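Researcher: Sequence recovery benchmark, item below. Answer with residues only.
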């Protein structure tokens, strides 16, 4: 496999390496991933995360596993294991199913590594296009609300929603990003803030429950988020709290966009009700854990509900920013997302 380095995934000739995102921003620590179980654990515990990146990272790992001598049968078992690491982001299933289909066509496995490299390169290109399509929606002077993390830490390229923001900034638009901290795992306060600081884009972190107040104060002109799975009617799953952002935007008359690559569309999923939602452990909500250690502030037996994602219905979405172009409500209601299926 060729050597490459993205912001959070790299291969320099020996092992697949991941930037451990549970430790950002305190430490930039790269992990060598040598076994299927290490890769599974890294996805499940969000050391590598973000819908597009978990798919690409799993594919790159499988390609390296094959190069290191795994048989086609070993590969199939590993693929099944990784496929089950997290249930909501369809990109993981897309990348793995794509590779399994390659093995079926070419049982020698020879085209396998090239197929994984292609998934990596494609993701970089998809992000570039999403950035260009979405930046057209951003105006000079906009305050933009962003939820979770959707940048180079969540994809192989410049990101989806954050890629749009970066592109608009590079076009010279004077923007300010309001970063939802994104409880419980703080992808906004830790990861998006880290990326925006590196990019030199002005930002302010807010607690998630402050967003509606800022809208009322007139500080936010657009909201833009990513997606983990988009159903054919335009409903989509994204990081928990996205639905609240969409409802608040509707109330305040603020455009609310989701940005995603074609690999996030689920052509077998009619509506949001069909999307499986990952439930995570109660400790994440009873307190917080990270590079700063672990803090528990609730009674240790407090009941907790901790869905990692929620579903935003299509009628709250002002537009879907995809690599295939911008889709508005009318286009999505006409069923045009179905036409994007690639053979
Ligand atoms: O649980 P995470 O951190 O993997 O959730 C990530 C998100 O919800 C992102 O918004 C989504 O994956 C899009 S990333 C381009």
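Model:
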């Amino acid at each position: 496999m060729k050597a490459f380095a993205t912001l959070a995934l790299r291969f320099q000739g020996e092992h697949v390496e991941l930037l451990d995102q549970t430790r950002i921003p305190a430490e930039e620590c790269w992990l060598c991933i040598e076994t299927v179980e290490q890769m599974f654990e890294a996805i499940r515990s969000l050391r590598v995360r973000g819908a597009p990146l978990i798919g690409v990272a799993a594919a790159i790992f499988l390609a390296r596993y094959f190069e290191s001598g795994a048989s086609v049968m070993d590969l199939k078992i590993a693929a099944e294991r990784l496929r089950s690491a997290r249930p909501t982001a369809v990109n993981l299933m897309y990348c793995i199913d794509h590779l399994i289909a390659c093995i079926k066509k070419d049982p020698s496995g020879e085209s396998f590594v090239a197929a994984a490299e292609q998934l990596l390169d494609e993701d970089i290109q998809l992000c570039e296009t999403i950035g260009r399509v979405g930046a057209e929606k951003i105006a000079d002077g906009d305050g933009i609300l962003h939820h979770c993390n959707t940048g180079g830490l969540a994809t192989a390229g410049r990101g989806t929603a954050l890629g749009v923001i970066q592109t608009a900034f590079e076009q010279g638009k004077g923007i300010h990003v309001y970063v939802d901290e994104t409880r419980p795992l703080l992808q906004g306060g830790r990861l998006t803030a880290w990326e925006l600081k590196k990019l030199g884009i002005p930002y302010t972190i807010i607690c998630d429950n402050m967003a509606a107040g800022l809208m009322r104060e007139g500080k936010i002109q657009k909201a833009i988020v990513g997606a983990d799975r988009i159903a054919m009617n335009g409903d989509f799953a994204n990081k928990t709290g996205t639905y609240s952002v969409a409802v608040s935007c509707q109330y305040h008359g603020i455009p609310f966009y989701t940005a995603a690559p074609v690999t996030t569309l689920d052509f077998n999923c009619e509506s949001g009700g069909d999307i499986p939602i990952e439930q995570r452990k109660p400790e994440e909500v009873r307190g917080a854990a990270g590079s700063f250690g672990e803090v528990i502030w609730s009674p240790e037996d407090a009941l907790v509900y901790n869905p990692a994602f929620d579903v935003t219905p299509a009628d709250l979405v002002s537009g879907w920013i995809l690599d295939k172009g911008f889709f508005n409500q009318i286009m999505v209601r006409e069923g045009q997302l179905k036409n994007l299926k690639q053979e």
